[in-house]
Amino acid sequence: MSSAVRSPQSISRCPVKRLDPLIRRLSLKLTPPSLEDNRSPEARLRAAVAQLLGEVPELPLPILQSLPPVLNRDWCPVVDCLFDGRWHVVAIHGESPPPPLGLAIDLGSTTVVFYLVDLSSGEVVHQRSALNPQVKYGEDILTRLHLASKKEGLERIHHLTIEFLNREILSLAEGVGYRPQDISILALAGNTTMTHFFLNLDPSMIFREPYVPLANRFDFFPAKDLALELSPLAKVYVFPNAGSYFGGDLIAGILASGMHRHPGLNFLVDVGTNAEVVLGNQDFLVACAGAAGPALEGGILTCGMRARKGAIERVRIDPESLQVNYKVIGDVPPEGLCGSGIIDLLAQMFLAGLVDQRGRLMIEKDPSRMVEIDGQRAYVVVFPEETSHGQPIYITEADIKNLIRSKGAMYTILTVVCRSVGVSFEDIENFYVAGAFGNYIDPEAAVIIGMLPDIPLSRFQPLGNAAGQGAICLLLNRQALGEIDEILKKLTYLEMNVRGEFMQLLTGALFIPHTDPNLFPSVKAKLGSRG
């Protein structure tokens, strides 16, 4: 299933002060050879490009072969030059060519997002998202990794991925009147496993000792090497990984946030299958990952679901009447609860006294909604007559315990990272929350349940699809290639599993919001005002 958004949009978050894209379009005016000036057309083309770009470009054989018909017309060719560390002419046009187009892809393990970018204007002219077809081989990464550890399994996943990408790129381009062959550059960001699947690289060492990927850094390469159906001379850039558990999607997210160029301290949090966290500034970057994601995404709860049409994304409970109000993505009858809705729900239940600090349901508070389902205590959020499937939407005590464990792990990861560099939450200037989770989450609700630190809400900044935005940033600013190198040099990975303090601190975070109420003064004040 795919979805598309057709309206052009600017990606304002990307720190691109002026366009300096990976592809430059040049309108040239050449003079034909003569007895007085007997330089070849090839030499004239190189000289004209060098005059504008300050560097003599490479001219691939297909460009030389296409010169005669273009030059015979008027000796005023329009050329596209691609920068991959040096300039290459990758297309030569006659009259009325389409704009120079780039493609940014966030290759997620569940969802893949595509952005078609006009590199002359900096606009995203079309975008779409689709379910990653790899999920048929396993919802979780580990199942796919086991399959891909055998050559035939890797080939199945790789070919499935390439066929899917070509199909989606065709729909993306045709949706706004272009062809895939009009695209000359692709920037792709994904986690370490996804990039190995995409590149047809053996991923078996990612999940076996010594847990080292086959490759972390990748040179630009021709799109045709992977049978990607783009321009004949199109090239591909894959964001580098920083290890098995810190992939190019996070490097792209750091690039999009600009935190690596900021003097103040910033946090970047991306909640997916895992919670991935980066703390730093222009001097250093500390990163870590931990298993805090599934419950926060709604993936492992009884009535949980992904953030899509039919998912409850907002919940409000009147503390006096206990009336439940909710908002559904797509304004349709609800099907389940996505991550942001679950966080809202738990926060509202806690403030209304429907659940205690340990996550136990207060049955006597609202007997009309407290039920037993399959031997478990549960709170009914939506009654059967209001849902799309005729079944109640509810949350069980076991669900709440799972959510508390996930939110507690999230808060503890943040605490450990801060302590590792000797700072406190009060020192953080910006707290970027990335991904679909970041788009929908209400930071206030996340603070109430003790998932995010109790800092001024104005410091929380939703970053949206950070990986996709980072890929767009690169397409629009070739200087970002150097920034990516700097990010990798500054980055230190913190292994959470070997830090004994994590388990010690986690114990205190397994309550709502925490065993130490002084860590959450705003929540303490809210509870006090409600008696």
Automatic annotation (TrEMBL):
InterPro entries: Corrinoid_activation_enz, Raco-like_middle, Raco-like_middle_sf, RACo_C, RACo_linker. Residues 18-73 form the RACo linker region domain. GO terms for molecular function: ATP binding. Residues 267-524 form the RACo C-terminal domain. Transmembrane segments: none annotated. It holds the Pfam family RACo_C_ter. Keywords: ATP-binding, Nucleotide-binding. Residues 101-261 form the RACo-like middle region domain. PANTHER family: IRON-SULFUR CLUSTER PROTEIN, IRON-SULFUR CLUSTER-BINDING PROTEIN-RELATED. This is ATP-binding protein. It comes from Thermosulfuriphilus ammonigenes.
